[in-house]
Amino acid sequence: MRDSKLVRQNLILFLGGFTAGVGGFVYHAIAGRVLGPRLYGEVAALVGLYTVGTTANLILVLVLARYAADLVASERLGAIRHIVARTSRLLALPAVGFCLLVAALSVPLASFENFGSPVPVIWLGLAIARAVCCRACSASRPSPPTSRWSWSHGPVRWSCCWRSAWR
User: Fold this and answer.
1) CA dist., res. 33 & res. 53, Å (int)
2) What torsion do the CA atoms of 40, 150, 100, 57 make, to the nearest 10 degrees?
3) Cβ atoms of 132 and 60 closer than 8 Å
4) Percentage with pLDDT > 70 across the chain
5) Alpha carbon distance 85, 91 (integer Å)
6) How confident is the model at residue 163 (pLDDT cuts 50, 70, 90)?
7) What CA–CA distance (Å, rounded) separates 36 from 38?
8) Residue 53 CB neighbour total at 10 angstroms
9) How far apart are CA 15 and CA 47, in angstroms?
10) For the purposes of burial, counting CB atoms within 10 Å of the CB of 9, is it exposed (0-12), middle (13-18) or buried (19 or more)?
11) 3 state DSSP class of 146
12) What's the CA gap between 12 and 6, in Å, rounded?
């Protein structure tokens, strides 16, 4: 059983999921204590809305990753660049439209959620649009190696996704 690749991979997956669960529990315990009931309620509502908003993103990422894996398996690596550019172009306008819609609805949404300001709702809309566009692009291309400069990976990837949409 020790030599089984399947067991090793599932053990890594289990340990990663367990660690993420414990980390999430610790995060929420600390955030609830530090922020207090009102501000923690806002954060929890925004995290919930983000989760719901990025559900379509998860589906899109799975489909694109599967398609890219099929292309790699059939050694058609040139087609991956095409699906990245096409996905970027197809998602760019709806993402901008989504941001404008969220900005227009930010005041009523903030009022409904009892937020003190509509600014967190606007940031949430931008975060969801960024997640959908950039994760969809990254699902179909290999990940770059991690480095000590990984803090800049998110903004760089975001700008690369928008740049590749207009090539």
Assistant:
1) 27
2) -80
3) yes
4) 79
5) 10
6) very low
7) 6
8) 18
9) 24
10) exposed
11) coil
12) 10
| Mean pLDDT of the chain, nearest integer | 80
Token pair for 17 = 């999921």
Q: What would the two tokens of residue 108 be?
A: 């009523």
Check residue 116 and report its DSSP letter: S
Distance of CA 76 to the CA centre of its chain: 27
| pLDDT value of position 71 | 85
Query: In the chain, what are the domain boundaries?
Result: 7-41, 54-165
Cβ neighbours of residue 166 closer than 8 Å, sequence gap 6 or more: 89, 92
Residue 84 pLDDT: 79
Mean pLDDT of 123-146: 71
Instruction: Please give the structure tokens belonging to residue 137.
Output: 């692009």
In terms of residues, how long is the chain? 167
CB 42 within 8 A of CB 120: yes
Cα–Cα nearest to 46, from 113, 134, 138, 140: 113
Of these ranges, 2-11, 58-67, 104-113, 145-154, the one predicted with the greatest mean pLDDT is 104-113
